[in-house]
Amino acid sequence: MDYPSSALWSGQSPSPEKSSQILIREYPHRAIAIASPTHALILRHSTSTSEAIANGSLSSVASARPRSSFDTGTPKCMVEFSPNTSSLLADYRPLTPRPIYGTLGLISIGRDVFLCVITQASRVATVRPGETVERIDGVQFFCLNSADYDDVVALDPYEVESDATSVYGQSLGRRDVAIEHPCLELQRLLGNGSFYYSTDFDVTNRMQDRPADANTFDINNFDESFLWNSYMIQPLVEFRSRLQKQERHALDASRILTSAIRGFCRSWAIPQSSAPLRSQHTGLPSYLTIISRLSCRRAGTRFNSRGIDDDGNVANFVETETTYWSPSGVVFSYAQVRGSVPVFWEQAAGLLPNQQKITITRSADGTQPAFDKHFAELEQAYGAVHVVNLLSATKPGELELTSHYRYGIQHCPLSRPAGDLSRDHALLRDTEYDFHAETKGPQGYEAANQIRRYIESSADGFAYYLAQESDDVPEPKGRSPSPQSRRYIVVLQQEGVFRTNCLDCLDRTNLIQTIISQMAVEAFLGHRGETAASDFWSRHSSLWADNGDSLSKIYAGTGALKSSFTRHGKMSLAGAIADVRKSATRLYYNNFADKARQNTIDTLLGRLVGQTPVILFDPISDYVAGELQRRSSEFSTTEKIRIWVGTFNLNGRTEGIDEDLSPWLCPAELGHIQPEIVAVGFQEIVELNPQQIMNSDPTRKQLWERAIKRTLDHHYSRQGDDKYILLRSGQLVGAALCIFVRSSVLHHIKNVEGSVKKTGLSGMAGNKGAVAIRLDYANTPICFVTAHLAAGFTNYDERNKDYATIDRGLRFQRNRGISDHDSVIWFGDFNYRIGLGLEMAKELVRRRDLERLYENDQLNLQMVAGLAFRFYSEARITFMPTYKYDVGTDNYDSSEKARIPAWTDRILRKGTNLRQLSYNSAPLRFSDHRPVYGTFECMVSIVNEKLRDKISREVYERRKGEVGGDTANLAGDESEDEDLIGYDAIEPGLPPASSDRQKWWLENGKMARSSIMPPKPESSAYKTIPNPKRPSNPYAPTEEPDWVNIPRSESRLSSFSSMSTSPYEHVNHSMLLSSSASSSAPRKLPPPYDPSSLPAKIGRMQIGEDNVPAQLDGPPPPPPPRRQTGLSNGPPSTTTTQISRKPPGKTAPTSLPPVSPASSSSQPAPKPKGPPPVAKKPAHLAAPASPASSASGSVELRTTPQKDTTKAQVPQLPRRSTASLHSSVSNHGGAPAERDESPPQLPRRIASNPSVTRMGRAHPPGAVGLVGLGEKKNQLPAQKAAFVSQKPPAPPAPRRSQAVVDLLDDETGANIGGWEALKPS
């Protein structure tokens, strides 16, 4: 922006001591450093951490868990602040040759993280010596995690010089296709000349709220309502708060962190000859400054941001401060505010000037809590408030706003004076001043000065801020005191504020605020017996004209109207022509550019749905986040609320307005329970004729709103019942939605928004479509949608498309959609019909056969098919079809069209916290539809923010004391990000998982110790040690004891006590004892690895592989635990797989010969080495094989462990098979069964007839299915199939009788009716 009339230091950059240098290091990790002369702030993106979060391997980090469906991984960065040394930045190079003047913060766009720095700035104001303000003229976004955008620059034709162009220009020329920088729009917004910052003082607070001394301020005291980079700078501010005091002061002194405001700031240097206050000691000029701070709480463009929100924030809220500093040691300040009319209203952009319709979106009663909150905050910040309302009394829209404004002031507690005092002594007063009517006469805008007589009493009472330099400061000899040595004493404080508004708070408001500012300066000078010359007032008017232009460009896109009069004191012809041109330009911006500007603003402020802030890594903060999540029950509670929802197609009739609506609004199911929320949806509230489908007439809606409120208040009139308040309503031609809430719960409700979506005539007409209202009840977002979908018996595809259009296209502010809510309730005339003929449908209705009717309901069929309302639920329908009736009767349509009865009016829900209590229709007969209602119980979450913050601080301090506050050195690559982050405990009560840096068993550096004592040995000649033969997996089933006794060193047995330390080597102690104790037998190497000896191979199982049968003795081992699928870490075991048939009528099964993969002798016979394992397809993907034939009877799978006579074996756990399996089952004669190479069947539930397969083929009795042999964790029931080997079985060997090991044996085994689904390994 250019301000030629008031440019004081045009193009002057900030002083060098206020600049820093930005550096980059590419290897081993990409890192960016901001270096001041004394310190450096180093930032590195945690790449591996983000990827781990995305793929779930770091899901134990509580603070990194996704918060919404959009949040796939919170971007994390590591940060270090260290003294600047040559070794620290040895590997870094400059990223841009020019200095930078501050850091605005970090922002994530997609998966990329960008650092925003100020690359161009110019000094525009000096409030007083030592307090300067700079304007941001250019910013640059540097990516922390990628070099893709290093050579992407914004080619701005109006930009004379670009930092990035000089560095990256050559690379840009080699690109085939130019890549647009993701932050291009943000870069343009921040560099458009409307943002300001100061590194000398807190520019977010007015002078009265800052320390009187010039250059002492604390970042923690910034007013976030005016801090526009609050979202981006917050991670760095939080990091700063965790530093030690000395480091924190060093970071502040480095001027790296920057606070930016938006609005206007400019100074005029008043020479001594024109200064109203003159100093005899110095020839320094005086400084007249105006600073306007635009609030970011409800930021937005003209037609996208209007009125108030539930937190009391209003659109276009600006605090404007006029300051004057004199070398005589006097500082004057006066603040006033402007803001949109504090009621809930909206205005749509249009192509005709002054024809944009104003819509009040909430009743006066529903507005009052937010209205009171707004003025309570004003009163707390500024004192008494005097409202100056400049709206027209003749324009209907502005008159309606004025009436709501007046109602709010009358009912606001601040407007009631204490005791018997008059309204002039109230904290809230108002003046209605019709600006256009007052300035219509021959005097023109000069007549606006008449407002002085309406507000002069308040102006005198509000006073102004005045501080004077103390006289007790000793002056150095020969020179004046430095700004740092000055000490100011506050003499007077401003005790009230004028709040001025018109419709846009731009043109009329700026002119009146100029007059109020002049009144304050005149009062200040008058109290000192001074007056100001015309030259001084000319500069004052020019500053205010520039202020109006700047604020108008931000909000409306052009400079302010009437600025010619503000600047020169008269309206010229050129000024009138300029106003016409500005009005036309505003129409273009408001209709075609403002939506994109609004989206950029929301991105900057971090208000888009799914937008996640950057997390600066701090292991203590991660721990605190996890603790808060685990202790959420301490500061959050749940509460059950009741919601009544109703829908009614009125068929354009108004006869029922005066009828008793209580059978519908207050059904018997509720009893005397008063719902917290009442949501009423109407369709065809007006007749849908061609004249109506393009416009919405609110008259009918308002009539029904009054009828509903009258019914509710009449029914709930007992003592203790609350009155209902209309929270918000919306209308789309014939569809209307009204939300009423109990007055006692209004304080729980925030962020109420409304939206509509047209679907008629391809989205051009509003005869069909939806109206939605969303709100936050405490911490639970709830959305209500009423819809009127396409009509026609066979048009269910069109209705499905209407639903999809509404679900995807209906959007609230900040890109929030319907699905972005915990609870969603759809209700309305969905127009889905019953797919039966007229006679059949009426016959079923006559028989009240609702089940048969529902089977043919189109909505039911479309939902089952997943074509509409996916993931929504509907309660059981127990009422008759609600369409179509003869009006005034209970008879279905008897006209010529003969509509088929149908449930067109429905209520659907989605949300785990919703429980439907009732679903019914009401007997209201004045329409051809019957109204439908449902009652819900909703579980809402309420968080005590103060208690949460208190617990957070306590946990942080405790954790910091436990682990210390050292930060990781980011300069090297000796550590992994996961080691720095650490892990949380997987279960409550367990220690956190260890990493290379932190081991839970060492307890903060203490030596490891064990509290387990070994048992006493059998005799003194032995000592007890852990059993080396026990498998390494402590949970594997084994018969080995935990401890064994070995001879002591002085014992005769000590010569060989160390030989049997391997679980794979068996040492016969008795054999050794028979020989000389001094000599030991040579050690025998274990047999070479033979994959064929394993019990379960990759791809097949061998049965009867060895010629020598195993010797069986000893009881069987206990079965492995259920769900155990992995192999034991201990020695491989040897098992025998037996298959026995149970012929009918026999109890003792006939078993197949046992099989042992290993010989029973101590010296195994040499076997050919099997092929190495080969990766193959999992069993469920391999080519299937059909089961082989077998004799009649069911088949059992038995496992019999083989026990070596010289060595105890650990039974092998079942393992998964990863390739196709083959089977061979012998019949009673011992002949092998035929093999079938067809693919194995997938696991499925067994039919009652075991001989019938999945494909309908009849297998012989006892056929075996070959599915997932190695996958089986449990023994199969008798009627299930078993797996056998493709080799013929060996002859049976004598064995001991053993009990069958039932791997499915548990308390629920008897109820298992089929296969358990097996997951691939």
Automatic annotation (TrEMBL):
Q: Does the keyword Disulfide bond apply?
A: no
Key words, A-Z: Cytoplasm, Hydrolase, Protein transport, Transport
Gene Ontology molecular-function annotations: phosphatidylinositol-3,5-bisphosphate 5-phosphatase activity; phosphatidylinositol-4,5-bisphosphate 5-phosphatase activity
- Tell me where it resides: Cytoplasm
Low complexity composition bias: residue spans: 1180-1194
- EC assignment: the record states 3.1.3.36
Gene Ontology BP term (one)? protein transport
Q: Which CDD domains match?
A: INPP5c_ScInp51p-like
Where the protein is mainly located, per its record? cytoplasm
Listed Polar residues bias regions: 1125-1140, 1197-1227
- InterPro entries per UniProt: Endo/exonu/phosph_ase_sf, IP5, IPPc, SAC_dom
Gene Ontology, cellular component aspect: cytoplasm; membrane
| Segments forming domain SAC | 186-557
Pfam families in the record: Exo_endo_phos2, Syja_N
Primary enzyme class: hydrolase
- The domain of life is Eukaryota
Q: Where is the composition biased (Pro residues)?
A: 1165-1175
Ranges where the record places region Disordered: 1009-1043, 1074-1270, 1278-1297
Task: Give the family per the record.
Answer: Belongs to the synaptojanin family.
Q: What is this protein called?
A: phosphoinositide 5-phosphatase
